[in-house]
Description:
The protein is α+β, with helices and mostly antiparallel strands. It contains five helices and six strands, in the order ββββαβαβααα. It has a domain at 12-74. Helix 3 packs across helix 4. It has helices at residues 32-38, 55-58, 75-90, 92-103, 110-116, and strands at residues 2-7, 10-15, 18-23, 26-31, 46-51, 62-67. A hairpin with a 2-residue loop joins strand 3 (18-23) and strand 4 (26-31). InterPro entries: ATP11 (IPR010591). It is found in: Mitochondrion. Keywords: Mitochondrion, Transit peptide.
Amino acid sequence: MVILQCLLKHLIFELDYNFVEVEAPHMIFTGLEDYKARGTEAAPYLTSKFYTELSETKDLVFIRGDVVFTSKLTDEEAKWLMETAQSFYLNDTRYKLLERFNKHTHDFEFKDVLQALDMPIL
Length: 122
């Protein structure tokens, strides 16, 4: 299940057991249980940095992701997390869900997130 929460410039994703905080140009993923226990002091499972130097001239952004705890997160899971998180910024329909959550909370429906991710609605 994916839950979106946003406070000011920080975006929080809860993806089953993972938590991500975004403050451009970084994304930090950690375990949900670790985050609940330690908050912002939780150890990262996956870190990523966005290199935007070529974004305006070449329409290109490089991303580097590093799995910190291989015992907690596989490369395949890390790839899925990065791709899913990015998809909310690269896909107009998914981005509208972020905007709706942040700016029009009363209109936000969690089932729309599940549908966007082709996940079963529970």
